[in-house]
Design a protein that fits this description.
Layout: E1 11-13, E2 17-21, H1 24-36, H2 59-73, E3 79-88, E4 91-101, H3 103-106, E5 108-115, H4 124-139, E6 144-150, H5 154-162, E7 166-175, E8 178-188, H6 189-194, E9 201-203, H7 205-208
Parallel strand pairs: 5-6
Antiparallel strand pairs: 1-2, 1-9, 2-3, 3-4, 4-5, 6-8, 7-8
């Protein structure tokens, strides 16, 4: 059933997956993935502070849900964040977000995503980023997309490189309370157009534009 709130009806479809507006029903289907753990062990945690996915269960799930609910509620022309559940073969596999700040004027976006450990290494991370970039550029007429990742987060940096992003400087952030270097990337509309795909479909964009102040 369609929602009365247009951002929850947005969908991006590729031959491999669907990005579906993060309704509560879809979030509930993702809870087992969040409970099982997304950040994973190892010396190079992928997320900056603060991050609910580092918390112990069940606080992890509660904080994760509260953050999404709060972000969904704060949608205005000056700032918005669109949350999508990634469906791979119909199964919830992670999340992909698209963030705009003063978008009507600047036409720039940034992205954030995570993928369940068992779905990694299959090209899904690249496909879901390509999908949300299609929404940004083809659906919302973005001028530029930005991304950043810790310098040792090789998977995320590889996705940016594969999709045509260019290096855009460095920075610092904390993870688990420790400082770590960031690699920043940008993708201009001209570079995106060079590899624009014709097999990605959008649903619900027109109805969503007034909500975003467009």
């Amino acid at each position: 059933m369609a929602s009365s709130y247009p951002p929850l009806n947005l969908q991006v479809r590729t031959p491999r997956l669907v990005l579906a507006g993060a309704t509560d029903e879809l979030l509930e289907r993702l809870i087992p993935v969040v409970r099982a753990g997304v950040a994973g062990p190892g010396p190079a945690p992928p997320f900056d502070d603060p991050m609910s996915l580092y918390a112990d269960s069940p606080e992890r799930e509660w904080r994760w849900l509260r953050a999404i609910w709060a972000g969904r509620a704060r949608v205005e022309p000056g700032w918005w964040r669109l949350y999508f559940v990634v469906l791979a073969d119909g199964e919830p596999a992670g999340m992909q977000d698209l963030i705009g700040q003063e978008f009507a004027t600047l036409r720039t976006v940034s992205t954030f995503s995570w993928l369940a450990p068992r779905h990694r290494g299959r090209g899904i991370g690249t496909e879901m980023r390509a999908a949300v970039l299609h929404l940004a550029f083809a659906g919302l007429a973005a001028r530029e997309a930005a991304s950043e990742a810790f310098a040792d987060h090789h998977a995320s940096n590889s996705v940016s490189r594969a999709l045509g992003y260019e290096p855009n400087g460095t920075g610092w952030a904390t993870r688990r309370g420790e400082a770590a270097p960031l690699t920043r990337w940008k993708l201009t509309r001209d570079r995106w157009e060079q590899t624009r795909r014709s097999d990605i479909g959008l649903t619900g964009v027109e109805d969503c534009l007034p909500v975003l102040g467009l």
